[in-house]
């Protein structure tokens, strides 16, 4: 997520019973919106998170991203093409 030429599909993630929103990202150069949804769904299921709601937010282009974001990537849970900010 640090390349300025990269873009991701972005989903709001609501884990039922937690009362907060998270954000899930999936590399848009490797999959379409539906495939991104399926990949995120699989990661959540693998993590034993069974009750959740994903809503598509759109595609995020990183061309105007602040460079300091690179210092905050440790906050993400990473699974290949899927990154989740809990």
- Rg over CA atoms, rounded to whole Å, is 13 Å
Would you tell me the overall average pLDDT? 91
Number of domains: 1
Q: pLDDT below 50 for ≥5 consecutive residues: which ranges?
A: none
Features:
single chain, 86 residues, alpha+beta, 5-stranded antiparallel β-sheet, 5 strands
Describe this structure in words.
- With 86 residues, the protein is of the alpha+beta class.
- It has one domain (7-85).
- Helix content is 16%, strand content 38%.
- It has one helix spanning 33-46; strands at residues 7-15, 21-27, 52-61, 77-79, 82-85.
- Strands 3-1-2-5-4 form a 5-stranded antiparallel β-sheet, covered by helices on one side.
- The longest helix is centred in the middle third of the chain and has 14 residues, at 33-46.
- The chain is globular, with a radius of gyration of 13 Å.
- The model has no long low-confidence stretch (mean pLDDT 91).
Give a short summary of the structure.
It contains 1 helix and 5 strands, in the order ββαβββ. A hairpin with a 5-residue loop joins strand 1 and strand 2. 16% of the residues lie in helices and 38% in strands.
